[in-house]
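Hello Y.,

Per our agreement to keep a running log of every chain we model this quarter, I'm adding this entry. I've kept the format consistent with earlier entries: sequence first, then predicted structure.
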Amino acid sequence: MKIYDKPRNSNLEILRIIAMIFIISFHLSRHGFDGVTFALSNPNSYFLYFLGILGKLGVDIFIIISAYFMIKSKFHFRKLLILGGSVYFYSIAFLVIFTLFLTPALPTTMLDIVKCILPISHEAYWFITNYIVLMLLSPFLNMFINKLSKETYLKLLIIVLILWTVYPTFTGTCFAYSEMIFFIILYLIGSFIRLHVDMDKINMKKLIIIFSISLMIGYLLFMGFDSISPLNQLSIFNKETSMFKTSNSLFILTSAITLFLIFIKRKEFSNKYINYISGSVLGVYLIHSNMFVWPYLFYTVLNIPNYINSPYLILSLIIITVLIYVICTGIDIVRRVTIEKLWIYIVDNKLNNIPRWIASKFKIFEEKFSYYLK
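Predicted structure for the entry above:
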């Protein structure tokens, strides 16, 4: 699905693809080996621990990229309707497919049906729900951000990062944390980079060093603390070590920011094929993380838990991750050239008054909000 209309720096489109590959690999480890215990002597454990932090890194990167563009763009309800259309399409399509053809393998409950019919409000995809809320808030966040001086903005970032990143990383607790709060913090970070960071003064070698060190520290702390679990059984989802692999972990966030800056620092170029393929990144997420798809794919089709002691686990998971990305991209491209084109036609010709009416009301609210910020 294509959220932005203007041609983009293909460096960032490549980074979006990489971020989604990180997320897929995390889902393979998170869902495929959830509850599976293994000894630290098992060499596969080191790789699984690494995958355990990649997904959150991918989420941080994706939101920072979105904020980098949103701070300089105008919000359009048309984009929201197009995004919402793809969410409803996949949610209902997979409900029908798995209910009619795969019911013995995946029984459907009433709650499943409600989630599929109302996927956004009922968080069938937690990321999409928070992302759409962030899109709705973006005009007001932009007005607030543009009122701040660089010095005040920096002070605000320091405060929120101490409260929701530094303190939680080393204590395991934080102040009323939620994904939405941290999405807003990531939005502030991405916007600050776009508005106030002079990339000419940033050293590429230092970025690479900081990225490597922060990622390695996060990985070693995550694995190290997990290995001294009182249960003497390893699981990459122990709550005691979760602060080292969450999106707001100091080390994961630092890795995400520096990796983003590395791709910004690269010489800008635009490739229509890369940009087109990256337009299906969210589609890949909607397909492979669907509540029906991932259990069937990971357990029934691939039987991921059986790989835990395999000498080919690393190679197998890499190949599976790439295949999932390629196949899901192919499926979404087919949807984009068929169903989405039809939906865009309906939005532009049959529902065009709805976005205009909402936009007019939204504009009034924006003006009032802007007035109170003066």
